[in-house]
Amino acid sequence: MECTGSAPGGPQDPGSGCGLRLFVFPHAGGWSLMYREWPDRFPSDWRVRVLDAPGHGALLDTPPLTDGETLVAYFLDLLAPEIADGRTPFAFFGHSMGSLVAYELTRRLLAEGLTPPVWLGISALGTPRPGDEAAPLLDGTLSDDALRHLLGTLGGTPAQVLTDPHLWTVFAPAIRADLAVLRGLRAAPAAAPLPVALSAFAGSGDRAAPPARLAPWADRTEHFLGLRVFPGGHFYFQDDLGALAARVTADVRTALRSPVAGVR
Predict the structure, then answer these.
(1) Which residues contact 167 (CB under 8 A, 6 or more apart)?
(2) Is domain 20-258 given the CATH code 3.40.50.1820 in the classification?
(3) pLDDT tens digit string along 233-244?
(4) 3-state helix, strand, coil in the chain (%, to 5)
């Protein structure tokens, strides 16, 4: 299918007829600019859209959301015009906190009888379980210094945000709001396996979400395509985005060929 939108990476009409729409959900404190290289790494007939939550990126001037269900509802409303027409298949990819948002959004679509994504990509996040509220990064009482230190060890947050007092005051509310979202959603009860193809992605040296913690995602779907492990830490793809994009592309194409893809 020929994509009638603009060149890869450029602005496109949300209704453009691309072969697939890939919606990317960033990590806690992340925003679309951090993923600006992504659209150029995927097939030219795909429309890749990195989504900013309120209080992030282009929406920095809007209040961030601290409740997970509210954030999921926000994205459901935002994407409804693009995913409701049923003409173009779509897929979700989330990194770290974004994985949980993408997973819960998929659950919400299914619960409301709406078309789910043909594929769900979970990156750098273990399966949700209530005990994780005790994880260091999810401690809502962390001081600014402790939070900046933990974010620095994970990588992914621009150094200027962590070291410049003014930038920290600008971005800290969104980061803390995201962590509140993560705490709430991770405490949600487990659901029945999704009737959606799912792949999990991990960095071999990720101490926050080691590959073994992602293996149980196989039990959260009826169509597990595999655990994909790459060299690196929590932001493993920063060293070789091309390798991740190639694996995502292959897995999405596998999902599209599956009889359970809902042949749109």
Answers:
(1) 160, 161
(2) yes
(3) 999 999 999 999
(4) 45, 15, 40
